[in-house]
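Sorry to interrupt, but I need a hand with the structure work. Could you add the entry underneath, on a fresh line?
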Amino acid sequence: MVSREVISGIHWVGALDFDRRIFDELIPLPEGTSYNAYLVRGSQKTALIDTVDPAKEYDLISNLVKLGIERIDYIVINHAEQDHSGTLPMIMEFYPDAQVVTNAKCRDLLVALLHVPQERFKVIADGETLSLGDRTLQFFITPWTHWPETQITYLVEDKILFPCDLFGFHAATSELFITDEAWAYRSAKRYYAEIMMPFRGSIKGYVEKVRGLSPAMIAPSHGPINKNPKLILDAYADWVSDTVKNEVVIPYVSMHGSTAKMVDYLTGALITRGIVVRPFNLTRTDIGDLAFALVDAATVVIATPTVLFGPHPSVVSATYLANALRPKTRFASVIGSYGWGGKSVETITKMLDHVKVELIPPVMVLGEPDEATMQALDRLADEILKKHKEINIV
């Protein structure tokens, strides 16, 4: 790997992981990812902002060695998760005089996760600054922009924001800066859906705080650098708002075709009523695509066959995910079929305890759907349309 100059005195020294295909053993990475670390040289001091995943530690060390970096005074850790902090112990060995700069909560996590000695830390407070000579780093503590200890770092004179996970996205690309804004928008929305959506309430205030800084660049820890901060700040403002769209998401599984027939019919009924529909067959769906669709949808209809006495396990998993992601969805319902009985509706609705939705009466049928079933699905489509009109999105 090679380092790259961002501007004079500031280098990207991270790592590209083109081959990684899953994150946290959960999140698909169709385009790989990057672990961005940045070297900032002032007239008196040098700072490294974040490190890389331990699997790519050689890349970071190699970049620093090739740049001839003999001394690092500060290692800023914005977030304790190992894809950003994991190489910290090795960097500390290479640069034994470096201080680890972070907030108190992050310090405690780094001690627990990486056994970093307490005496190596310089603990900062919200709004505190650190001089590198002719450059100044300012730190803002931003809890729950993923973990409770997260912070962002702002390079005052050059107006560059280093927000770690916030405002970034998973992608390995040889381009240092974003050149395709449409691609970047979609990638960032997927990342927001998978990682940031549960914390949208916290993020709302941070978006405005960042706007107030008027950064010229946003240099996240995943994905390329953004020279048009307005693009991502406007996008985040929309995503974290309470505004939903005239869309219905239908995650489903069908074992013998009955539930699939109901999904097909309901999809057509909603389209006829002018509603955008996004069905997801969970046996084939990339969960990142499902999360992406949940960002804006006003309604979710969960469709399941009955396995023994409850919903299909894949539906249980998707419902758990939706509940954990806490989308701003306003309405939900359940459709599906059963053989001799079961409690699919009760199980699913109980699992949605973290999502503030109004439940629309379900459509569960015995066996193969018939004409009466289709009429019930038409009534469900009518009710969804009515609810969407009530909140003025139709």
Observations:
- The longest helix spans residues 371-390.
- The chain has a mean pLDDT of 97.
- DSSP finds twelve helices and 23 strands in the chain.
